[in-house]
Amino acid sequence: xxxxxxxxxxxxxxxxxxxxxxxxxxxxxxxxxxxxxxxxxxxxxxxxxxxxxxxxxxxxxxxxxxxxxxxxxxxxxxxxxxxxxxxxxxxxxxxxxxxxxxxxxxxxxxxxxxxxxx
Length: 118
Prior knowledge:
By secondary structure, this protein is an alpha+beta fold. The chain has a single domain (about 15-115), classed as S-adenosylmethionine decarboxylase. Helices cover about 25% and strands about 45% of the residues. It has helices at about 20, 25-35, 90-105, and strands at about 5-15, 40-50, 55-65, 65-75, 80-85, 105-115. Strands 2-3-4-5-1-6 form a six-stranded antiparallel sheet, with helices on one face. It is globular and about 50 Å long. The N and C termini lie close together (about 10 Å).
């Protein structure tokens, strides 16, 4: 018998607010709040800003229930979001929706996958 052990939401965000996706501290806070929205327990958060032609910011939050990853490409006003949670009390959709509301993309795509034991 198969058991769902995790929920995985991931997406692409196009034409995001350039002021938001270039601000490392703002993105860290967005990911922290997204973890709360998902009812996930934040364990650690790391971020870094990449310089150069394309530039971007990456934020990786380790939550007890798995992870939230956010990567931006400032030149393209593009971001990717990856949220994976385990545990019946978590909701990665709420985290994804919050991140979208803050990055304000003109459009986005999203996928959802149940992760199961067989």
